[in-house]
Amino acid sequence: SAVISQKPSRDICQRGTSLTIQCQVDSQVTMMFWYRQQPGQSLTLIATANQGSEATYESGFVIDKFPISRPNLTFSTLTVSNMSPEDSSIYLCSVEDSDRGASNEQFFGPGTRLTVL
Amino acid sequence: QKEVEQNSGPLSVPEGAIASLNCTYSDRGSQSFFWYRQYSGKSPELIMSIYSNGDKEDGRFTAQLNKASQYVSLLIRDSQPSDSATYLCAVPTGGGNKLTFGTGTQLKVEL
Q1: Beta bridge partners of A22
Q2: Torsional sign, CA A39, A43, A48, A51
Q3: Residue B90: in which H helix or E strand, if any?
Q4: What is the structure's pLDDT at B27?
């Protein structure tokens, strides 16, 4: 399966600032996704990152708070804007590896652990 | 009704026993089902995919799917302490590529 890396792996940020998280894949993939996993909770999809067009956001998530870029088929960024302590979470990118020929299988990066003070 | 439901556990089994993890889903149109394993502090790892009714075996893992009952399970035979983790069930929803995850079942394999 595709090898996925994320930067940074963790960060501690001040309230009101923004953080951009990078997701890099070692092969071209069509579908990339961004999830949030709050402490002790399961994964919640934030948005689907579409190459060459705006991301598709899930209910409860908006572009002004979580702007996403997808400049090519191997890279995406998620920005967490104007952060508050409630944004403290693990942020995960995932890809659907179409080369495997199996639909909907997603593989996750190592995650970014964000703490907002 | 939640789209994907799992018992949160913890489920405790002795080493060498069979661990049985269950998941129900609400979307009758779902065609694929996934089990992920997540160790504490790590990201989810895909361990099983199942697409048709019946059983699918991979080593010590068996996934069982019953679409009529909207039920998918994961059996872990000869459980090992290294199997202690949270197991997440995931189902595509909304007719597209996005996955909805259950809340996960924490498994503890005790010596």
Answers
A1: A7, A77
A2: positive
A3: strand B85-92
A4: 87
pLDDT score of B1: 67
Judge whether A106 is closer than 8 Å to chain B, CB to CB.
yes
Successive 10-residue mean pLDDT values, chain B, 111 residues: 87 97 91 95 95 93 94 97 97 83 96 90
C-alpha distances in Å from residue B43, one per residue of A62, A93, B36, B39: 24, 10, 10, 7
Answer whether B101 sits within 8 Å of A42, measured CB to CB: yes
What pLDDT, on a 0 to 100 scale, did the predictor assign at position B24? 95
- Provide the pLDDT for residue B34: 96
Go through chain A and tell me how many residues it has: 117
**Facing residue for A96 by CB, picked from B88, B97, B100:** B97
What is the bridge-based pairing of β-strands B105-110 and B11-14? parallel
The strand pairing partners of A29, in sequence order, are none
Q: Establish whether the linkage from the previous residue to B10 is cis, with ω within 30° of 0.
A: yes
> A82 to chain B, minimum CA–CA distance in Å?
25
Q: Please, what is the average pLDDT of chain A? A: 93
Which of A48, A102, A108 is closest, CB to CB, to B98? A48
- Would you state the structure tokens that stand for residue A69, as one six-digit string? 């870029």
Cβ neighbours of residue A17 under 8 Å, at least 6 residues apart?
Answer: A82, A83
Give the pLDDT of residue A100: 60
